[in-house]
Each structure stands twice: as C-alpha cells, then as structure tokens.
C-alpha cells in the first residue's frame, strides 16, 4: 500500500487559496484593492482554520498584513503593489469599520433561552454576529454568520423582517448599524460546531432573563418574543 503523503509547500497552499477565494471572481472584484483584501480575509480564515490544522509545519500567520504579503509573494500576484501594503490595509480597515453588522438571536422552542458565543480572547459572551460582505443581503449574512459561529444551519426564510430590529452605533467618526434577526424554534439539543475555531471558543445556551447584554438589545428582543407568542 502506498503510504506516501504529499508535501505541500507554502506556495502550493497559497495557490490553492487563490483558486478557492480569488481568481474565480469577476476581474473587478480582485483588481479593486479593498475588494481584493476582503477576498484575502476569507482566504486567511480558511488558512488558519483548515490548512494549519491539516499541515502542522505551515507557519501560523495570525497577522493579516503579513498574510497579504505572503499571499502576494507566493502567488506572484501582479495587481497589488506591496510597496503600498500598509496604506491599503489601513484603508481597508477604515472601510470595514463602517460596514453594517448582522446578528442572529437564536431562541429555543419555548422562547426562554438564547444562544451565545465567546471569542478565545474574551470572557464575555455575545450574540453570533459579523460584518456583511460587499453587496450581501443581510439575511444571507445572518445565515452565514450563524453557520460559521455556531455550526447551526438556518434558512433565509427564517430571517423574517418582522422579527428583526436595528441597533445604531457611533464610534468616533465611524457610524454603523447592527441588524438582529430573532429566530425561534432552534432545538436545544442542537450540536454546536463553530467553523471559525480561531474566532469562537465556546457556544452555549443562556437564560434570556439573565443574559449580559445591552439594555436596548434585551428590550427589543423581549418585544419580538411577545410578537412571536401572539402569532402562535
């Protein structure tokens, strides 16, 4: 039996990421520096969550700018000038800070508990949420973030406008909003398998009356719960 295990170089892996996340997009997607960096962000997550776990000899590239530099060099990408990498990454971060966020408030059948997640660097639990991709329908964002952060699959039909609310946030010159979709009837025996292991350390159910969240979030959530109860 052939027990030979193929050795993938860093260049092989970066070219695989290019094929998965970059080159098959429309040309205007990867020729625009900000859109290109959004594609590389997806590639970076995949690299950290999959390739480094599969091949433990690959470098742990946690810094996004260093990942961009590595990708461009290994793939020999011609349309992104590494001389301007600091400027371009800063522009991308500024743009990203203004992007709207979408969150999922996943409730059990009896509407008493909600799913909460915790990042590895935090002791605080929050609702599953994340930034929308460019031109993405917020309902698709909700479906994607739910899957990535909890492992639970929901449908776009479950993200109902009448069971949603928006929280505005103002930080310095950056203003953005968070749209929350309240999604009931998630089985309490659901298996939690977050896809982004570098971002999510723990997923659990919490009693709604005892969650540590902003008062505006808790108030709006309870209003939606009453609306759901009346519709049953």
UniProtKB/TrEMBL annotation:
<protein>
    <submittedName>
        <fullName>mRNA decapping protein putative</fullName>
    </submittedName>
</protein>
<dbReference type="InterPro" id="IPR000086">
    <property type="entry name" value="NUDIX_hydrolase_dom"/>
</dbReference>
<dbReference type="GO" id="GO:0000932">
    <property type="term" value="C:P-body"/>
</dbReference>
<dbReference type="GO" id="GO:0030145">
    <property type="term" value="F:manganese ion binding"/>
</dbReference>
<dbReference type="Pfam" id="PF00293">
    <property type="entry name" value="NUDIX"/>
</dbReference>
<dbReference type="InterPro" id="IPR015797">
    <property type="entry name" value="NUDIX_hydrolase-like_dom_sf"/>
</dbReference>
<dbReference type="GO" id="GO:0003723">
    <property type="term" value="F:RNA binding"/>
</dbReference>
<dbReference type="InterPro" id="IPR007722">
    <property type="entry name" value="DCP2_BoxA"/>
</dbReference>
<dbReference type="GO" id="GO:0016787">
    <property type="term" value="F:hydrolase activity"/>
</dbReference>
<comment type="similarity">
    <text>Belongs to the Nudix hydrolase family. DCP2 subfamily.</text>
</comment>
<dbReference type="Pfam" id="PF05026">
    <property type="entry name" value="DCP2"/>
</dbReference>
<feature type="domain" description="Nudix hydrolase">
    <location>
        <begin position="97"/>
        <end position="229"/>
    </location>
</feature>
<dbReference type="InterPro" id="IPR036189">
    <property type="entry name" value="DCP2_BoxA_sf"/>
</dbReference>
<dbReference type="GO" id="GO:0000290">
    <property type="term" value="P:deadenylation-dependent decapping of nuclear-transcribed mRNA"/>
</dbReference>
């Amino acid at each position: 039996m052939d027990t030979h295990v193929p050795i993938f170089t860093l260049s092989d892996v970066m070219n695989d990421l290019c094929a998965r996340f970059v080159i098959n997009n429309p040309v205007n997607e990867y020729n625009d520096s900000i859109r290109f960096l959004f594609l590389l962000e997806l590639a970076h997550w995949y690299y950290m969550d999959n390739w480094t776990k599969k091949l433990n000899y690959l470098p742990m590239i946690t810094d996004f700018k260093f990942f961009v530099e590595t990708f461009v060099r290994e793939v020999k990408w011609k349309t992104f000038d590494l001389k301007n990498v600091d400027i371009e990454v800063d522009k991308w971060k500024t743009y990203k800070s203004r992007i709207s966020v979408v969150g999922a408030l996943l409730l059990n059948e009896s509407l008493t508990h909600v799913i909460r997640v915790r990042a590895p660097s935090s002791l605080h639990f929050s609702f599953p949420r994340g930034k929308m991709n460019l031109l993405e329908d917020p309902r698709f964002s909700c479906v994607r973030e739910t899957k990535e952060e909890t492992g639970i699959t929901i449908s776009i039909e479950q993200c109902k406008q009448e069971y949603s609310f928006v929280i505005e946030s103002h930080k310095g010159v950056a203003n953005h909003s968070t749209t929350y979709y309240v999604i009931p009837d998630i089985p309490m025996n659901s298996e939690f398998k977050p896809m982004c292991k570098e971002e999510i350390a723990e997923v659990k159910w919490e009693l709604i009356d005892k969650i540590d969240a902003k008062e505006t979030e808790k108030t709006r959530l309870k209003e939606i719960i009453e609306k759901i109860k009346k519709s049953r």
